Amino acid sequence: MRYILAMMMAVVLALPARADVEITEVVSPGGITAWLVEEPSIPFTAMELRFRGGASLDAPGKRGATNLMTGLLEEGAADMDARAFARALEGLAASFSYDVGDDALAVSARFLTENRDAAVELLRASLLEPAFDPEAVERVRQQVLTGLLSDEKNPEELAARAFDKLAYGDHPYGTSYTGTVDSVSALTRDDLVAAHDAVLAKDRLYVGVVGDITPEELGPLLDELLGDLPEVGAPLPEMAEVDIPGGVTVIDFETPQSVALFGQPGMAQKDPDFFAATVLNQVLGGGSFESRLMNEVREKRGLTYGVYSYLVPRDYAATYMGRVASANDRIEEAIAVIRDEWAKAASEGVTEDELRDAKTYLTGAYPLRFDGNAPIARIMVGMQMLGLPIDYIATRNEMVEAVTMDDVKRVADELLDPDGLHFVVVGQPEGLETGPLPE
Amino acid sequence: MTRLRAVTALIAALLPLAAWAQSEANENVTTFELDNGMQVVVVEDHRAPVVTHMLWYKAGSADEPKGASGVAHFLEHLLFKATDNMDAGEFSATVAANGGRDNAFTSYDYTAYYQRVAADRLGLMMKMEADRMENLLLTPENIETERDVIIEERNQRTENNPQALFGEQMNAAQYLNHRYGVPIIGWMHEMRTLDLEDALSFYDIYYSPNNAVLVVAGDVDPEEVRELAETHYGVIPAEPDLPERLRTEEPPQTAARRVIFRDARVAQPYVSRSYIAPERDAGAQEEAAALTILAEILGGGTTSYLAEKLQFDTRVAVYSGAFYRGNSLDATTFDLVVVPGPDVSLQEAEDAMDAALVSFMEEGIDAEQLERIKLQLRAQQIYARDDADGVANRYGAALTSGLTVEDVQAWPDVLQAVTEEDIMAAAASVLRPEGSVTGWLTKPVEAVQ
């Protein structure tokens, strides 16, 4: 009996810290919904806004328009030019950042309680009355073009672009949302206004707020900030058809270390098996030192500084990706080891110990994400975009715990496709060439 | 140099790092010292039941012996191998099995190890961290394999990155006699020769309680931290032979230097300028505070002086910035960068930068701009309370770089007390051609039209 008691004690002690986050849904008088966590202990508020669709809503032939438009939101609004806007923001000690990606345009703001109304007014002006002043357009356009030139000499970017083109073809995911030198050079102010109208609309808006603010204060603030947005934006993108043939693509680039990006079709986050796939990935290449890839490629053989795999469940396609970098004369071996591990996991699944450790890690690491107002606001917006229930945080770890050996084995068998992996290698890899996977 | 992720203090190059060292009275900091000389800092944040446990050693790449560059960082990797009580990899596996994350990083002046985990696991973290301070057990195989890993790390961070290679050359030209001129990760030819003895001799001297700072941040009680620290770390004897931390010093710098680095992988050429500059010193942080604000005034964003002159009044640059990192044991640098716009040559960009510096020295400070910067510094103290790990990092880096708890806590007031005269005096003293290196990162000659 003492033994059993000791076992139970151990289990209780090993329970991870629970993320204790109390979310309130606030609906403004004007009908805008936000998720709120009140945190009055520090006199500021973090706010995260996201507009679904993001840069994938670029009009045909206007690749890069949403990205350039987003870059201009902080470059002047209402009667302020870029410098007047920046001075106003500094004078409030607030910070706003505007970011865009394939699936969303994101706005992250933080502002002090003492001048909240003024900060919200400034944020509103940037979102609803951006100036798109021709001088600012040219200045930011040059910054974007500078970045595009750098991308052409960056092995990681070269690999990502080649892989995306291969996997997604004509879907917006198949090209970089930053556009090309030609497309960005040709964008007009009208294109930016059109991109703004397409993306910033209420029918695709998600809001998360954490900080020193009550539901009663937040409601009117939401209407003040976002009430004048148009109701409807451009139609959202179609699902992408993911087509990844097994094989190798070598992109010749003179540099000592080859960078390889590899992948295959993945799994949507809404799939009932997503947690099983997450556990599987944690074991295979989830980024910790304990993963099989890290252990085999780095710890045992010293072939790389870092190797990892990751599920990429985007809104309109899902892939399962990985990344490794090794000296040109060692990358072939690194890739061979990765393929072996992929095949081994596909046929054998994981061990009981690995399953247990992965679950402990995933459940224990989850509460560590809630470390500040802004991270919590971001997590809440992500939950809303996935359609998760408001009490999800409290139940998420139970879903991880519920994953069984059979689940992982079945998902490994169904998901992992060692012969369907495609490796894009940028560098001068010895012993590798474009074509089918080596025997 | 982190063990896993690409976060680095090495390449300040194009990143607009606002390295605000901030502090304030109500950030719930308790400090004390153990009998064996180990310093302890506790930062309380009870909003979530998690803790960050960090152990900082006052030993970084600038403390390495000649010929063994990179050994501080190599040893950081090796600390995840076996001890008398744990197998290789068991440390991280145990942290992970407790739902935590762990990693480590090396800089010029310090090496730090940290874990972030549920607050009730603090004792276990201390037990394991204390164990590897004393009981590291390295094999020749560890050395062979892990040396390959750090070489691949250098490949990834530096050899594959012309900006990083350029930064190394700039630094090497800046420091005539100080170890800061050698890269943290090491020169490749010396990394290849690092051996067991290099690692162990560094470990034996520097990995000692009287050379360490423990920082614990999160949902903890200072008294409880003290008891745990005494149990796990307090039993380790102090190292009696710990040397005083003296590095070879810089002589007066009397000649402007120029570095031209060419690489076919350069897509966007730029001009970089660094000046040798004083660092924050214990009890004397005033000039460093003035330089901190000077960097904001000159190159802290859209409203800065260089942006005004080079990006708005003219289109010389697509980007400009100024950087100063005062947290350093010995002399640091004040850096400028200008990325020229289309059809602007590096010479034109450099000339415009120098002309802007001249006009700045003549015009002096915009009082409203200074007030806005100070306001933001005050607001940073409010925002910083949302980031206990940031507070922990600030104390750890300061206390391993020659500063005291009092210096860290006085810093916000020192910043607020900076006057226009202080800033102009610091600018006049630091922005001297004789103390500078001017660098061009550019394409090979044949590629330049």
From TrEMBL, chain A:
Keyword Mitochondrion: no
InterPro entries linked to this entry: Metalloenz_LuxS/M16, MPP/UQCRC_Complex, Pept_M16_N, Peptidase_M16_C
Highest taxon above the source species: Bacteria
Alphabetical keyword list: Signal
Range of residues in the leader sequence: 1-19
Any Pfam family matching the protein: Peptidase_M16_C
Occurrences of domain Peptidase M16 C-terminal (ranges): 187-361
Domain (Peptidase M16 N-terminal) ranges: 38-179
Presence of keyword Signal: yes
Protein name per UniProt: Insulinase family protein
Organism annotation: Pseudosulfitobacter koreensis
From TrEMBL, chain B:
Residues annotated as domain Peptidase M16 C-terminal: 194-377
Signal sequence interval, chain numbering: 1-21
Cofactor: Zn(2+)
Domain Peptidase M16 N-terminal: 40-185
Pfam families: Peptidase_M16, Peptidase_M16_C
Keywords from the named record: Hydrolase, Metalloprotease, Protease, Signal
PANTHER family, per database record: METALLOPROTEASE, MITOCHONDRIAL-PROCESSING PEPTIDASE SUBUNIT ALPHA
Sequence similarity: Belongs to the peptidase M16 family.
Name listed for the protein in its UniProt record: Insulinase family protein
